[in-house]
Amino acid sequence: MSRSDAIERFTGEAEASGLTVEVHRFPDGTRTAADAAAAVGCGVGQIVKSLVFMADVRPVLVLCSGAKRVNEELLAAHLGLEVRIAAAAEVRSATGYAIGGTPPLGHAVPLRTVVDPHLLEFDEVWAAAGTPDSVFPVAPKALVKATAGAVVAVTH
Q1: How many other C-beta atoms can be found within 10 angstroms of the C-beta atom of residue 70?
Q2: pLDDT for the residue numbered 29
Q3: What integer pLDDT is reported at residue 5 of this predicted model?
Q4: How far is 29 from 52, CA to CA, in rounded Å?
C-alpha cells in the first residue's frame, strides 16, 4: 500500500469513527515520538505512541504518551494475560500499518485498546496518521471515544 493509500484509508476509518482529522505530513519523518514532537513543535508528552502488544495470541493496542514507557506488568494485570511487545510482522498483520506510522484506529482487525491517562493531561495530542511521516492533532477525550479505549494506568 502506498503512503497516500495508507493515509486515505486511515482518514476514512477515522471519519467513520466520528473523528474529523487534518493530516500533517513532514518529509523528515515522524517515526519516533521525539521526531514527531520536533516536527510538530510540541512536547514529547503530547505525542501518542500506538504500541501493539500480544496478549496470549491476541493483539492489543496501547496508546500512551511519548514521554512514558509501557509497564508490561501493569498491562498484563489489567488484561489478566501475559503480554509481550508485538513483532513488526504482527503489528502489520493486526493493524495493516508499519511500525512508526501505526494510527490509533482504523486497523485491519478490531483491536482492544488501552489508553494511558497521562494523555488526558493535554488539550491536544498528536498521533500517527498511517505513515512514518504523517500525524494529526486530536483532543485526547475524542481519541478515547473514537477508539472505545479503556483508560488505564499502564505506564511508568
Answers
A1: 19
A2: 87
A3: 85
A4: 20
Cell numbers placing 116: 494511558
Indicate the residue type of 11: T
- Which residue in 38, 45, 84 sits closest to 62, CA to CA? 84
Mean pLDDT by 10 residues, the chain (156 residues): 80 89 92 93 97 96 97 97 96 92 92 97 96 95 96 95
According to CATH, the superfamily of the domain at 3-151 is YbaK/aminoacyl-tRNA synthetase-associated domain (3.90.960.10)
Phi-psi bin for 28: left (phi > 0), alpha (psi -120 to 50), beta?
A: alpha
Helix boundaries (H) for 86-131: 88-95
